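Today's session is about reading a structure prediction critically. Students often jump straight to the picture, but the first step is always the sequence itself: look for stretches that repeat, for charged clusters, for runs of hydrophobic residues. Only then move on to the predicted structure, which in these notes is written as discrete structure tokens rather than atom positions. Here is the chain we will use throughout the hour.
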Amino acid sequence: MTQLWPEGVPIEVEAADGLPLAFRWQQRRHAVRAIAEQWVIRDEWWREELWRHYFQVETGDALLCVLYHDLLAGCWLLERVYD
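Below is the predicted structure for this chain, in token form.
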């Protein structure tokens, strides 16, 4: 079952040059095997300012996830895990 957290779940991310290499979720380290897609959303004029760099990643243990780096707050969050 796909899990979605619209506000995101805070995660620890190992990154290099702004790209995620691995992240910790549910007390496990998940190595990023591939970045399938990435996009940036910057929105500020009609609501609270938002600036995020999203990544759809595939992990070495076969998870497909969407995580993002909140570029304003400087934190990483997990938004979705596909089954």
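Discussion point for the tutorial: The chain has a mean pLDDT of 94.
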